[in-house]
Structure formats: C-alpha cells, structure tokens
Amino acid sequence: MSFSFAAVRAVVEVDEELGLVRVVQLAVAQDAGRVIFPAGAEGQVEGAAAQGLGLALTEEIQLDGGAIRNASFTDYLIPTILDAPPIVTEFVEVPEPDAPYGLKGIGELATVVATPAVVAALRAATGRPLNRAPATPEDLVGLRGPAETGGRAPIPDVPGQKAIPEYLGLGLGQQELMKARE
To answer: Which of 112, 114, 105, 92 shows the shortest CA–CA distance to 27?
Structure first.
C-alpha cells in the first residue's frame, strides 16, 4: 500500500455584486510515484481538477425529505470543456520502493483537493465565511449565510501508528505480497 498526495492552487475572479465567478487557473502538484505515461497521467489530473471545480461551483444534489429533486442533468450542472480554466499539472516523481515500477495511484486524487482550493480562493476574494460547496451566487453576494454546523467533528480514537491494514487484521498488503515473491 502506498499513499499519493496532491495540492491545488486556484486563482479566481469574482463579481461581488452579481456573484459571478471565473476560475482563471488551477495548478495541481501531485505525488505520483513514477509516471510511466505522462499524457495519460496529465489527463487524469486535469479531469479530476475539472470534477473538483464542478463540485465547488455548480454540482448540487437537491434533496427534499431524502428524495432527490434533480430530475436530470439539466438541473445538475456538470462543467464542460468550455468551463474548465487552464490547468497546470506538475508531478513529483519519487518512486514507491515497494510497488511495481515505483508506481502510485493517479486516478481522481485532484478532485479531493480542487474543491476546497476553489472555495478557499472564493473565501479569500470575497471575505465571506463560505463553508459549503457548491458556493452559489447567493453565497458570494451574501444573500445566504454560512451553513449551520454542529461544531467540529470529533477526533477519532486511533490506537497508534500502525498501518490501517494491520488494524483490520490484513497484514501489510502489497509489501507482504512482494516479499513472498522473492
């Protein structure tokens, strides 16, 4: 098992009177182990960043008593290529010693960090206490206040510094398999 890491910087322009947003650029740095197919890896990161952009600005599941109100993708807006800003991608290539070819996952990791990066950039640009996604025009002009929360989530009781598979009684996973082959 290995862990991948990513960081995203979002540059935004905001019309604070109308609540309109233009994302000028997303810059993604990802620890990917060894990158074997750079074009494919870059495409994965760009797609993930675009997904994160959608989650930050337009994609909202509307619920009414537990039932989804979005009848179709007509009112669940997914960004298209026309909505995507320039995306700068940089890979940090530190091969994973216990993985085949030194690989780590690339997948859609940038989705996880692009959403809060865009919302944080909007928060910095407007000074508003944005604490939900998607950040709507109503949020950006101050017509809707911050989401109510029950406070911070409790810190989980974690017994120590073991790898997660060990807690589940699964051994060390991939590293154990690699040693068994030797």
So the answer is: 114
H or E segment and range at residue 126: helix 109-126
Closest CA to 44 of 97, 87, 92: 87
Residue of 16, 90, 93, 108 with catalytic role: 108
Tell me the C-alpha distance between 72 and 159, whole Å: 45
108 noted as active-site residue: yes
User: In CATH, what class is 5-146+160-181?
Assistant: alpha beta
CB 2 within 8 A of CB 33: yes
- pTM higher than 0.85, yes or no? no
3-state secondary structure of 89: strand
pLDDT tens per residue, range 15-27: 999 999 999 999 9
Of 52, 69, 71, nearest to 134 (Cα)? 52
